[in-house]
Design a protein that fits this description.
The complex is a heterodimer of chains A (304) and B (252). Chain A has 304 residues and is an all-alpha fold. Chain A has a domain at 114-303: MetI-like (MetI-like fold, Orthogonal Bundle), CATH 1.10.3720.10. Chain A has helices at residues 24-50, 55-60, 65-72, 101-133, 136-139, 143-161, 164-175, 179-203, 207-214, 220-254, 262-271, 275-303. In chain A, α4 (101-133) runs parallel beside α8 (179-203), α4 (101-133) runs antiparallel to α10 and α7 packs across α8 (179-203). Chain A starts with 23 loop residues before the first helix and ends with a helix. Helices cover 35% and strands 23% of the residues of chain B. In chain B, a hairpin with a 5-residue loop joins β1 and β2. In chain B, α6 (151-164) runs parallel beside α7 (181-198). Classes of the chains: A mainly alpha (304), B alpha/beta (252). The interface between A and B is medium-sized, with 22 and 34 residues.
Chain lengths: 304, 252
Protein backbone atom coordinates (compact mmCIF):
# COMPACT_ATOMS: atom_id res chain seq x y z
CA UNK A 1 0.00 0.00 0.00
CA UNK A 2 1.39 3.42 -0.88
CA UNK A 3 1.82 5.70 2.03
CA UNK A 4 -0.04 9.03 2.28
CA UNK A 5 3.09 10.96 1.22
CA UNK A 6 3.13 9.24 -2.18
CA UNK A 7 -0.47 9.91 -3.13
CA UNK A 8 -0.70 10.77 -6.87
CA UNK A 9 -2.20 14.18 -7.61
CA UNK A 10 -5.97 14.15 -8.07
CA UNK A 11 -6.72 15.31 -11.63
CA UNK A 12 -10.09 16.72 -10.63
CA UNK A 13 -8.80 18.71 -7.66
CA UNK A 14 -8.96 22.50 -8.18
CA UNK A 15 -5.65 24.31 -7.76
CA UNK A 16 -5.80 27.63 -5.97
CA UNK A 17 -2.47 29.45 -6.47
CA UNK A 18 -1.16 31.42 -3.52
CA UNK A 19 -2.32 35.03 -3.44
CA UNK A 20 -0.07 37.32 -5.51
CA UNK A 21 1.29 40.04 -3.28
CA UNK A 22 -0.16 43.41 -4.20
CA UNK A 23 1.74 46.53 -3.34
CA UNK A 24 0.82 50.21 -3.54
CA UNK A 25 2.98 50.48 -6.65
CA UNK A 26 0.92 47.77 -8.35
CA UNK A 27 -2.27 49.71 -7.60
CA UNK A 28 -0.85 52.98 -8.87
CA UNK A 29 0.41 51.25 -12.03
CA UNK A 30 -3.01 49.76 -12.70
CA UNK A 31 -4.62 53.18 -12.29
CA UNK A 32 -2.09 54.74 -14.65
CA UNK A 33 -2.70 52.06 -17.27
CA UNK A 34 -6.44 52.72 -17.26
CA UNK A 35 -5.93 56.48 -17.42
CA UNK A 36 -3.61 56.14 -20.43
CA UNK A 37 -6.09 53.81 -22.16
CA UNK A 38 -8.95 56.28 -21.56
CA UNK A 39 -6.92 59.24 -22.84
CA UNK A 40 -5.91 57.27 -25.93
CA UNK A 41 -9.55 56.43 -26.70
CA UNK A 42 -10.53 60.10 -26.40
CA UNK A 43 -7.69 61.02 -28.75
CA UNK A 44 -8.77 58.32 -31.20
CA UNK A 45 -12.33 59.66 -31.33
CA UNK A 46 -11.01 63.19 -31.79
CA UNK A 47 -8.85 61.90 -34.65
CA UNK A 48 -11.89 60.62 -36.55
CA UNK A 49 -13.58 64.01 -36.15
CA UNK A 50 -10.50 65.99 -37.15
CA UNK A 51 -9.94 63.87 -40.29
CA UNK A 52 -13.61 64.36 -41.29
CA UNK A 53 -14.02 60.65 -41.64
CA UNK A 54 -17.46 60.00 -43.12
CA UNK A 55 -18.73 56.99 -45.09
CA UNK A 56 -21.60 59.05 -46.50
CA UNK A 57 -19.26 61.53 -48.18
CA UNK A 58 -17.29 58.67 -49.70
CA UNK A 59 -20.41 57.14 -51.25
CA UNK A 60 -22.39 60.27 -52.22
CA UNK A 61 -19.35 62.22 -53.37
CA UNK A 62 -17.87 65.33 -51.84
CA UNK A 63 -18.09 67.55 -54.91
CA UNK A 64 -18.13 65.90 -58.26
CA UNK A 65 -17.45 62.22 -57.64
CA UNK A 66 -19.45 60.96 -60.61
CA UNK A 67 -17.37 62.92 -63.11
CA UNK A 68 -14.13 61.92 -61.37
CA UNK A 69 -15.05 58.25 -61.40
CA UNK A 70 -16.08 58.48 -65.07
CA UNK A 71 -12.79 60.14 -66.01
CA UNK A 72 -10.72 57.69 -64.03
CA UNK A 73 -12.11 54.72 -65.96
CA UNK A 74 -11.74 56.58 -69.28
CA UNK A 75 -8.01 57.31 -69.48
CA UNK A 76 -6.73 59.64 -72.18
CA UNK A 77 -4.94 57.24 -74.54
CA UNK A 78 -4.09 59.71 -77.30
CA UNK A 79 -0.80 59.35 -79.17
CA UNK A 80 -1.05 62.83 -80.74
CA UNK A 81 -2.54 66.00 -79.31
CA UNK A 82 -5.89 67.11 -80.78
CA UNK A 83 -7.80 70.36 -80.34
CA UNK A 84 -11.47 70.72 -79.39
CA UNK A 85 -12.57 69.94 -82.99
CA UNK A 86 -10.54 66.74 -83.13
CA UNK A 87 -7.89 68.21 -85.43
CA UNK A 88 -4.27 67.13 -84.92
CA UNK A 89 -2.28 69.96 -83.32
CA UNK A 90 0.99 70.64 -85.13
CA UNK A 91 4.10 71.88 -83.45
CA UNK A 92 4.78 75.51 -84.33
CA UNK A 93 8.52 74.86 -84.60
CA UNK A 94 8.81 71.58 -86.51
CA UNK A 95 5.41 71.24 -88.16
CA UNK A 96 5.20 67.69 -86.82
CA UNK A 97 2.11 66.57 -84.87
CA UNK A 98 2.45 67.35 -81.15
CA UNK A 99 2.80 64.20 -79.00
CA UNK A 100 -0.29 63.20 -77.05
CA UNK A 101 -0.69 62.16 -73.43
CA UNK A 102 0.65 58.60 -73.82
CA UNK A 103 4.05 59.40 -75.40
CA UNK A 104 4.55 62.36 -73.05
CA UNK A 105 3.83 60.23 -69.98
CA UNK A 106 5.92 57.29 -71.24
CA UNK A 107 8.83 59.70 -71.62
CA UNK A 108 8.27 60.99 -68.07
CA UNK A 109 7.96 57.45 -66.68
CA UNK A 110 11.28 56.69 -68.37
CA UNK A 111 12.79 59.71 -66.59
CA UNK A 112 11.43 58.39 -63.29
CA UNK A 113 13.07 55.00 -63.82
CA UNK A 114 16.34 56.67 -64.85
CA UNK A 115 16.25 58.80 -61.69
CA UNK A 116 15.84 55.71 -59.54
CA UNK A 117 18.67 53.98 -61.41
CA UNK A 118 21.16 56.83 -60.97
CA UNK A 119 20.11 57.43 -57.35
CA UNK A 120 20.47 53.76 -56.46
CA UNK A 121 23.82 53.39 -58.23
CA UNK A 122 25.27 56.43 -56.43
CA UNK A 123 24.06 55.12 -53.08
CA UNK A 124 25.53 51.66 -53.71
CA UNK A 125 28.90 53.12 -54.71
CA UNK A 126 29.05 55.30 -51.59
CA UNK A 127 27.57 52.94 -49.00
CA UNK A 128 29.76 50.00 -50.13
CA UNK A 129 33.05 51.36 -48.76
CA UNK A 130 31.38 53.12 -45.81
CA UNK A 131 29.58 49.98 -44.63
CA UNK A 132 32.90 48.29 -43.79
CA UNK A 133 33.62 51.14 -41.39
CA UNK A 134 30.20 50.70 -39.81
CA UNK A 135 30.64 46.98 -39.06
CA UNK A 136 31.40 46.30 -35.42
CA UNK A 137 33.41 43.15 -36.04
CA UNK A 138 35.89 45.04 -38.25
CA UNK A 139 36.27 48.19 -36.15
CA UNK A 140 36.47 46.96 -32.57
CA UNK A 141 39.81 46.92 -30.84
CA UNK A 142 41.27 50.29 -31.85
CA UNK A 143 40.36 53.86 -30.97
CA UNK A 144 40.41 54.93 -34.63
CA UNK A 145 38.11 52.02 -35.49
CA UNK A 146 35.67 52.99 -32.74
CA UNK A 147 35.62 56.57 -33.98
CA UNK A 148 34.99 55.47 -37.57
CA UNK A 149 32.27 53.05 -36.45
CA UNK A 150 30.43 55.62 -34.36
CA UNK A 151 30.65 58.44 -36.89
CA UNK A 152 29.63 56.37 -39.93
CA UNK A 153 26.77 54.79 -37.95
CA UNK A 154 25.66 58.27 -36.96
CA UNK A 155 25.73 59.47 -40.59
CA UNK A 156 23.68 56.43 -41.68
CA UNK A 157 21.13 57.08 -38.92
CA UNK A 158 20.76 60.74 -39.85
CA UNK A 159 20.38 59.97 -43.56
CA UNK A 160 17.76 57.32 -42.82
CA UNK A 161 15.84 59.66 -40.53
CA UNK A 162 15.00 62.10 -43.34
CA UNK A 163 12.22 60.81 -45.61
CA UNK A 164 13.28 61.15 -49.28
CA UNK A 165 10.42 63.56 -49.92
CA UNK A 166 11.75 66.01 -47.32
CA UNK A 167 15.23 65.74 -48.81
CA UNK A 168 13.73 66.33 -52.28
CA UNK A 169 11.97 69.52 -51.14
CA UNK A 170 15.27 70.80 -49.70
CA UNK A 171 17.18 69.96 -52.90
CA UNK A 172 14.50 71.51 -55.14
CA UNK A 173 15.11 74.73 -53.24
CA UNK A 174 18.87 74.31 -53.55
CA UNK A 175 19.32 73.27 -57.21
CA UNK A 176 15.93 74.08 -58.73
CA UNK A 177 13.17 71.74 -59.93
CA UNK A 178 13.95 68.78 -62.21
CA UNK A 179 15.18 65.22 -61.91
CA UNK A 180 18.57 66.16 -60.37
CA UNK A 181 17.24 67.05 -56.88
CA UNK A 182 15.23 63.81 -57.01
CA UNK A 183 18.37 61.80 -57.72
CA UNK A 184 20.18 63.49 -54.82
CA UNK A 185 17.30 62.79 -52.43
CA UNK A 186 17.08 59.12 -53.42
CA UNK A 187 20.85 58.66 -53.22
CA UNK A 188 21.22 60.22 -49.76
CA UNK A 189 18.33 58.36 -48.18
CA UNK A 190 19.42 55.06 -49.79
CA UNK A 191 22.98 55.45 -48.49
CA UNK A 192 21.54 55.36 -44.98
CA UNK A 193 19.38 52.34 -45.70
CA UNK A 194 21.91 50.32 -47.71
CA UNK A 195 24.77 51.23 -45.37
CA UNK A 196 22.87 49.76 -42.45
CA UNK A 197 21.93 46.58 -44.36
CA UNK A 198 25.44 46.12 -45.81
CA UNK A 199 27.17 46.58 -42.45
CA UNK A 200 24.80 44.15 -40.77
CA UNK A 201 25.59 41.59 -43.48
CA UNK A 202 29.30 42.10 -42.79
CA UNK A 203 28.69 41.66 -39.05
CA UNK A 204 27.11 38.24 -39.60
CA UNK A 205 29.88 36.63 -41.69
CA UNK A 206 31.47 33.33 -40.77
CA UNK A 207 34.74 34.27 -39.06
CA UNK A 208 36.53 30.96 -39.75
CA UNK A 209 37.57 31.87 -43.34
CA UNK A 210 38.53 35.34 -42.12
CA UNK A 211 40.91 33.88 -39.54
CA UNK A 212 42.28 31.48 -42.15
CA UNK A 213 43.09 34.35 -44.52
CA UNK A 214 44.64 36.33 -41.66
CA UNK A 215 46.83 33.31 -40.92
CA UNK A 216 48.39 33.55 -44.40
CA UNK A 217 49.92 36.90 -43.43
CA UNK A 218 47.59 38.94 -45.61
CA UNK A 219 47.18 42.68 -45.01
CA UNK A 220 43.94 43.91 -43.46
CA UNK A 221 42.62 45.11 -46.83
CA UNK A 222 43.15 41.72 -48.43
CA UNK A 223 41.71 39.91 -45.39
CA UNK A 224 38.48 41.83 -45.99
CA UNK A 225 38.67 41.29 -49.75
CA UNK A 226 39.39 37.53 -49.68
CA UNK A 227 37.76 36.53 -46.40
CA UNK A 228 34.65 38.70 -46.14
CA UNK A 229 33.62 40.00 -49.56
CA UNK A 230 32.86 36.60 -51.16
CA UNK A 231 30.58 35.90 -48.19
CA UNK A 232 28.57 39.13 -48.40
CA UNK A 233 28.57 39.89 -52.13
CA UNK A 234 25.34 37.99 -52.97
CA UNK A 235 23.55 39.79 -50.13
CA UNK A 236 24.93 43.14 -51.29
CA UNK A 237 23.58 42.55 -54.80
CA UNK A 238 20.18 41.43 -53.50
CA UNK A 239 19.89 44.45 -51.17
CA UNK A 240 20.87 46.82 -54.00
CA UNK A 241 18.26 45.38 -56.37
CA UNK A 242 15.62 45.57 -53.66
CA UNK A 243 16.57 49.18 -52.98
CA UNK A 244 16.26 49.99 -56.69
CA UNK A 245 12.81 48.41 -56.60
CA UNK A 246 11.80 50.69 -53.71
CA UNK A 247 13.43 53.74 -55.33
CA UNK A 248 11.38 53.36 -58.53
CA UNK A 249 8.19 53.79 -56.51
CA UNK A 250 9.79 56.48 -54.38
CA UNK A 251 10.84 58.55 -57.42
CA UNK A 252 7.22 58.64 -58.66
CA UNK A 253 6.25 60.40 -55.43
CA UNK A 254 9.23 62.76 -55.61
CA UNK A 255 7.89 64.32 -58.83
CA UNK A 256 5.00 65.75 -56.85
CA UNK A 257 7.37 68.13 -55.03
CA UNK A 258 8.96 69.15 -58.33
CA UNK A 259 11.81 66.66 -58.38
CA UNK A 260 11.30 65.36 -61.92
CA UNK A 261 9.61 62.37 -63.50
CA UNK A 262 6.00 61.34 -63.98
CA UNK A 263 4.91 62.46 -60.51
CA UNK A 264 5.32 66.08 -61.56
CA UNK A 265 2.74 65.76 -64.37
CA UNK A 266 0.42 63.67 -62.21
CA UNK A 267 0.33 66.48 -59.67
CA UNK A 268 -0.37 69.04 -62.46
CA UNK A 269 -3.24 67.02 -63.96
CA UNK A 270 -4.89 66.62 -60.57
CA UNK A 271 -4.57 70.32 -59.79
CA UNK A 272 -6.11 71.19 -63.21
CA UNK A 273 -8.91 68.62 -62.73
CA UNK A 274 -7.65 66.71 -65.84
CA UNK A 275 -8.67 63.36 -64.39
CA UNK A 276 -8.61 61.50 -67.73
CA UNK A 277 -4.92 62.35 -68.09
CA UNK A 278 -4.32 61.55 -64.41
CA UNK A 279 -5.92 58.18 -65.08
CA UNK A 280 -3.40 57.59 -67.89
CA UNK A 281 -0.68 58.36 -65.36
CA UNK A 282 -2.04 55.76 -62.95
CA UNK A 283 -2.27 53.21 -65.74
CA UNK A 284 1.30 53.75 -66.91
CA UNK A 285 2.63 53.71 -63.34
CA UNK A 286 0.73 50.51 -62.61
CA UNK A 287 2.05 48.74 -65.71
CA UNK A 288 5.63 50.00 -65.30
CA UNK A 289 5.87 49.16 -61.60
CA UNK A 290 4.36 45.72 -62.17
CA UNK A 291 6.84 44.89 -64.93
CA UNK A 292 9.84 46.22 -62.99
CA UNK A 293 8.69 44.53 -59.78
CA UNK A 294 8.46 41.22 -61.57
CA UNK A 295 11.81 41.74 -63.24
CA UNK A 296 13.60 42.66 -60.05
CA UNK A 297 12.24 39.73 -58.04
CA UNK A 298 13.15 37.41 -60.93
CA UNK A 299 16.70 38.79 -60.81
CA UNK A 300 16.94 38.58 -57.03
CA UNK A 301 15.83 34.93 -57.04
CA UNK A 302 18.67 34.15 -59.41
CA UNK A 303 21.24 36.04 -57.35
CA UNK A 304 20.48 34.24 -54.06
CA UNK B 1 71.27 20.60 -32.63
CA UNK B 2 69.84 22.88 -35.26
CA UNK B 3 68.16 26.12 -34.33
CA UNK B 4 64.54 25.83 -33.24
CA UNK B 5 61.87 27.10 -35.66
CA UNK B 6 59.69 28.21 -32.81
CA UNK B 7 60.89 28.76 -29.28
CA UNK B 8 58.73 30.12 -26.48
CA UNK B 9 59.97 31.15 -23.06
CA UNK B 10 57.69 31.78 -20.12
CA UNK B 11 54.77 32.21 -22.51
CA UNK B 12 51.53 33.27 -20.82
CA UNK B 13 48.22 34.64 -22.00
CA UNK B 14 45.30 36.03 -20.03
CA UNK B 15 42.20 36.87 -22.06
CA UNK B 16 40.53 40.26 -21.47
CA UNK B 17 37.75 38.51 -19.51
CA UNK B 18 40.37 37.29 -17.02
CA UNK B 19 40.61 33.69 -18.25
CA UNK B 20 44.15 32.42 -17.86
CA UNK B 21 44.71 30.36 -21.03
CA UNK B 22 48.48 29.78 -20.92
CA UNK B 23 50.99 29.97 -18.06
CA UNK B 24 54.76 29.76 -18.21
CA UNK B 25 54.98 27.67 -21.37
CA UNK B 26 58.45 26.75 -22.62
CA UNK B 27 57.95 25.09 -25.97
CA UNK B 28 60.12 24.54 -29.00
CA UNK B 29 60.00 22.77 -32.34
CA UNK B 30 62.95 21.93 -34.57
CA UNK B 31 62.95 22.08 -38.39
CA UNK B 32 61.16 19.09 -39.92
CA UNK B 33 59.90 17.84 -36.57
CA UNK B 34 56.30 16.68 -36.08
CA UNK B 35 54.94 17.48 -32.64
CA UNK B 36 51.55 16.32 -31.39
CA UNK B 37 49.88 18.50 -28.80
CA UNK B 38 47.20 16.91 -26.63
CA UNK B 39 45.11 18.04 -23.69
CA UNK B 40 41.50 18.57 -22.72
CA UNK B 41 39.34 21.21 -24.38
CA UNK B 42 40.32 24.57 -22.97
CA UNK B 43 43.76 23.39 -21.86
CA UNK B 44 45.43 26.01 -24.07
CA UNK B 45 46.34 24.06 -27.23
CA UNK B 46 44.61 26.42 -29.68
CA UNK B 47 45.83 29.48 -27.79
CA UNK B 48 49.41 28.21 -28.10
CA UNK B 49 49.17 27.91 -31.90
CA UNK B 50 47.64 31.38 -32.23
CA UNK B 51 50.39 32.87 -30.07
CA UNK B 52 53.01 31.24 -32.27
CA UNK B 53 51.83 32.86 -35.51
CA UNK B 54 50.79 36.12 -33.91
CA UNK B 55 47.01 35.82 -34.27
CA UNK B 56 46.96 36.32 -30.49
CA UNK B 57 49.35 38.53 -28.59
CA UNK B 58 50.62 36.88 -25.39
CA UNK B 59 50.53 38.79 -22.14
CA UNK B 60 53.75 37.28 -20.78
CA UNK B 61 56.95 35.78 -22.10
CA UNK B 62 58.29 35.61 -25.61
CA UNK B 63 57.81 33.72 -28.87
CA UNK B 64 60.78 33.49 -31.20
CA UNK B 65 60.53 32.39 -34.84
CA UNK B 66 63.95 31.45 -36.24
CA UNK B 67 65.50 33.36 -33.38
CA UNK B 68 63.52 36.60 -33.83
CA UNK B 69 60.76 37.82 -31.54
CA UNK B 70 57.38 37.36 -33.30
CA UNK B 71 55.56 40.00 -31.28
CA UNK B 72 58.06 42.83 -31.68
CA UNK B 73 55.45 44.59 -33.85
CA UNK B 74 52.16 43.71 -35.58
CA UNK B 75 53.92 44.15 -38.95
CA UNK B 76 56.61 41.67 -38.01
CA UNK B 77 53.99 39.18 -36.79
CA UNK B 78 52.41 39.48 -40.23
CA UNK B 79 55.66 38.70 -42.00
CA UNK B 80 56.09 35.66 -39.73
CA UNK B 81 52.61 34.44 -40.71
CA UNK B 82 53.67 34.36 -44.37
CA UNK B 83 56.09 31.54 -43.52
CA UNK B 84 53.68 29.70 -41.23
CA UNK B 85 50.80 27.69 -42.70
CA UNK B 86 47.74 26.94 -40.61
CA UNK B 87 44.79 24.57 -40.92
CA UNK B 88 41.68 24.55 -38.76
CA UNK B 89 39.01 22.24 -37.39
CA UNK B 90 36.34 24.01 -39.46
CA UNK B 91 38.62 24.18 -42.57
CA UNK B 92 38.17 27.95 -43.01
CA UNK B 93 37.72 27.80 -46.78
CA UNK B 94 36.19 30.91 -48.30
CA UNK B 95 32.66 30.10 -49.54
CA UNK B 96 31.61 30.78 -53.16
CA UNK B 97 35.27 30.94 -54.23
CA UNK B 98 36.64 28.10 -56.37
CA UNK B 99 38.98 25.51 -54.88
CA UNK B 100 41.85 26.82 -57.01
CA UNK B 101 41.31 30.41 -55.88
CA UNK B 102 41.05 29.24 -52.27
CA UNK B 103 44.48 27.66 -52.64
CA UNK B 104 45.82 30.80 -54.30
CA UNK B 105 44.53 32.85 -51.36
CA UNK B 106 47.41 31.14 -49.54
CA UNK B 107 49.56 33.65 -51.48
CA UNK B 108 47.57 36.58 -50.00
CA UNK B 109 50.46 37.48 -47.70
CA UNK B 110 52.85 37.77 -50.65
CA UNK B 111 50.83 39.61 -53.30
CA UNK B 112 50.40 43.36 -53.34
CA UNK B 113 47.08 45.06 -52.72
CA UNK B 114 46.11 45.75 -56.34
CA UNK B 115 47.05 42.33 -57.63
CA UNK B 116 45.01 40.82 -54.81
CA UNK B 117 41.98 43.01 -55.46
CA UNK B 118 41.63 41.78 -59.05
CA UNK B 119 42.58 38.16 -58.23
CA UNK B 120 45.50 38.43 -60.64
CA UNK B 121 47.89 35.52 -60.14
CA UNK B 122 51.11 34.94 -62.05
CA UNK B 123 51.60 31.76 -64.02
CA UNK B 124 54.19 30.59 -61.46
CA UNK B 125 51.66 31.06 -58.64
CA UNK B 126 49.00 29.14 -60.54
CA UNK B 127 51.46 26.30 -61.22
CA UNK B 128 52.38 26.24 -57.53
CA UNK B 129 48.72 26.06 -56.50
CA UNK B 130 48.00 23.28 -58.99
CA UNK B 131 51.05 21.36 -57.71
CA UNK B 132 49.77 21.72 -54.12
CA UNK B 133 46.36 20.40 -55.19
CA UNK B 134 48.06 17.47 -56.93
CA UNK B 135 50.01 16.58 -53.80
CA UNK B 136 46.82 16.25 -51.73
CA UNK B 137 45.27 14.34 -54.67
CA UNK B 138 42.37 16.67 -55.29
CA UNK B 139 43.40 18.32 -58.56
CA UNK B 140 40.25 17.13 -60.38
CA UNK B 141 38.10 19.24 -58.02
CA UNK B 142 39.93 22.51 -58.77
CA UNK B 143 36.92 24.28 -60.30
CA UNK B 144 34.37 23.37 -57.60
CA UNK B 145 33.13 25.46 -54.71
CA UNK B 146 34.03 24.35 -51.16
CA UNK B 147 30.48 23.40 -50.22
CA UNK B 148 30.38 20.87 -53.06
CA UNK B 149 33.19 18.91 -51.39
CA UNK B 150 33.13 16.46 -48.48
CA UNK B 151 34.73 17.40 -45.16
CA UNK B 152 37.87 15.38 -45.89
CA UNK B 153 38.24 16.96 -49.32
CA UNK B 154 37.77 20.44 -47.84
CA UNK B 155 40.53 19.84 -45.30
CA UNK B 156 42.82 18.65 -48.09
CA UNK B 157 42.12 21.91 -49.95
CA UNK B 158 42.97 23.76 -46.74
CA UNK B 159 46.26 21.82 -46.55
CA UNK B 160 46.97 22.79 -50.18
CA UNK B 161 46.29 26.44 -49.30
CA UNK B 162 48.75 26.27 -46.40
CA UNK B 163 51.35 24.56 -48.64
CA UNK B 164 50.88 27.27 -51.25
CA UNK B 165 52.49 29.63 -48.72
CA UNK B 166 55.63 27.42 -48.95
CA UNK B 167 55.80 27.53 -45.16
CA UNK B 168 58.54 26.54 -42.74
CA UNK B 169 55.97 25.30 -40.23
CA UNK B 170 52.45 23.95 -40.50
CA UNK B 171 50.16 24.60 -37.53
CA UNK B 172 47.20 22.22 -37.41
CA UNK B 173 44.45 23.17 -34.94
CA UNK B 174 42.42 20.00 -34.39
CA UNK B 175 42.55 19.29 -38.12
CA UNK B 176 40.55 16.06 -38.02
CA UNK B 177 38.10 16.62 -35.13
CA UNK B 178 35.25 17.18 -37.60
CA UNK B 179 36.06 14.08 -39.65
CA UNK B 180 35.30 10.36 -39.32
CA UNK B 181 38.25 8.15 -38.19
CA UNK B 182 39.00 6.79 -41.67
CA UNK B 183 38.96 10.21 -43.34
CA UNK B 184 41.00 11.57 -40.43
CA UNK B 185 43.81 9.16 -41.31
CA UNK B 186 43.72 10.06 -45.00
CA UNK B 187 43.97 13.77 -44.16
CA UNK B 188 46.73 13.35 -41.54
CA UNK B 189 48.65 10.98 -43.85
CA UNK B 190 48.71 13.67 -46.54
CA UNK B 191 49.71 16.45 -44.17
CA UNK B 192 52.43 14.53 -42.35
CA UNK B 193 53.82 12.90 -45.53
CA UNK B 194 54.19 16.27 -47.29
CA UNK B 195 55.73 17.88 -44.21
CA UNK B 196 58.28 15.06 -44.01
CA UNK B 197 59.05 15.26 -47.75
CA UNK B 198 59.58 19.02 -47.66
CA UNK B 199 61.18 19.24 -44.24
CA UNK B 200 58.29 21.36 -42.94
CA UNK B 201 57.89 21.30 -39.18
CA UNK B 202 54.37 20.50 -38.00
CA UNK B 203 52.51 21.13 -34.77
CA UNK B 204 49.21 19.25 -34.59
CA UNK B 205 46.63 19.72 -31.84
CA UNK B 206 44.83 16.41 -31.65
CA UNK B 207 42.02 15.03 -29.54
CA UNK B 208 42.77 11.44 -30.46
CA UNK B 209 45.61 10.13 -28.29
CA UNK B 210 46.23 7.20 -30.64
CA UNK B 211 46.64 9.51 -33.66
CA UNK B 212 48.88 11.80 -31.61
CA UNK B 213 51.14 8.88 -30.67
CA UNK B 214 51.16 7.50 -34.20
CA UNK B 215 52.02 10.68 -36.11
CA UNK B 216 54.08 12.66 -33.63
CA UNK B 217 57.85 12.43 -33.19
CA UNK B 218 57.26 14.02 -29.82
CA UNK B 219 54.20 14.68 -27.68
CA UNK B 220 53.45 17.73 -25.60
CA UNK B 221 50.48 17.52 -23.25
CA UNK B 222 48.76 20.55 -21.78
CA UNK B 223 46.78 20.75 -18.59
CA UNK B 224 45.11 23.96 -17.44
CA UNK B 225 47.36 26.13 -19.59
CA UNK B 226 50.65 24.53 -18.53
CA UNK B 227 52.85 21.91 -20.17
CA UNK B 228 52.12 18.81 -18.10
CA UNK B 229 54.09 16.25 -20.10
CA UNK B 230 56.68 16.31 -22.81
CA UNK B 231 58.36 13.30 -24.33
CA UNK B 232 58.36 10.48 -26.84
CA UNK B 233 55.08 8.75 -27.71
CA UNK B 234 56.25 5.61 -25.91
CA UNK B 235 56.71 7.56 -22.69
CA UNK B 236 53.05 8.64 -22.66
CA UNK B 237 51.70 6.04 -20.26
CA UNK B 238 48.13 5.46 -19.12
CA UNK B 239 49.05 7.00 -15.77
CA UNK B 240 50.11 10.22 -17.47
CA UNK B 241 46.98 10.19 -19.59
CA UNK B 242 44.86 9.78 -16.47
CA UNK B 243 46.56 12.82 -14.99
CA UNK B 244 45.81 14.82 -18.13
CA UNK B 245 42.27 13.74 -18.89
CA UNK B 246 41.08 12.91 -15.36
CA UNK B 247 40.04 9.70 -13.63
CA UNK B 248 37.41 8.87 -16.21
CA UNK B 249 40.00 8.49 -18.93
CA UNK B 250 39.49 5.08 -20.51
CA UNK B 251 41.77 3.90 -23.26
CA UNK B 252 40.27 5.57 -26.33
Amino acid sequence: MPTSEHKPPQPSARITPPQKPRTLRDSLWTGLKWTITALFLVYLIASFQRTEFNFYTLISGGKDIKRVMYDLVHPDLSWVERDADGEVVLSRKTGEPKPGTVPVLLDQMNETVMMSLVGTLLSVLLSFPLSFLAARNLTKGSAAGQLAYNSVRFIFNVLRAFPPIILAIIFVFMVGPGPFPGVLALALHSIGMLGKLFSEAIESVDLAPVEAVRATGASNNLIVWFGILPQVLPQFVAFSLYRWDINIRMSIILGIVGAGGIGFLLDQYIRLFQYQKASTCFLIILVAVTILDWGSSWLRERMG
Amino acid sequence: MSEAVFQTTGLGLTYPDGTRALSDVDFHIKPGEVVSVIGRSGAGKSTLLRCLNGLLVPTDGSVKFRGKEVHSSPEHARTVRRDVGMIFQSFGLVPRVSVLNNVLIGRAGQVGLWRGLIYHWTDAEKQLALRCLTRVEILDQWHKRPRELSGGQQQRVAIARALCQQPAVLLADEPVSALDPATARVVLDHAVRICREDGIAMIANLHSVSLAKEYGDRIVAFKAGRVHFEGLPAELTDDVLREIYGEHYADF
